Amino acid sequence: MTYDWASLRDRPAVVEERFPLEVLTPLMMHGARRSQAESRPPSFKGVFRSWWRWRSRRLAGW
């Protein structure tokens, strides 16, 4: 398999997207700097754990 490296080099490494959102409940999203909002995606382990708990309850008939 061959790649067109020139086209890869011209694309940006990070793509910024903006979405209009409305917050319905109080929201605290800050890290070390309280003046700047920070959002972190959930870890794969946490997502898999919650999925596994949901799935095992469904299989058990809860």
Rg from alpha-carbon coordinates: 20 Å
- How far apart the termini lie comes to 49 Å
The description of the largest β-sheet is:
none
Question: Helical region count?
Answer: 2
What does this molecule look like?
37% of the residues lie in helices and 0% in strands. It has 62 residues and is mainly α. The chain has a domain of 33 residues. The longest helix has 17 residues.
Strand and helix map with partners:
Layout: H1 5-10, H2 44-60
Short description:
By secondary structure, the protein is mainly alpha-helical. It has 2 helices and no strands. It has a domain of about 35 residues.
Question: What keywords describe this structure?
Answer:
flat, mainly alpha, 62 residues
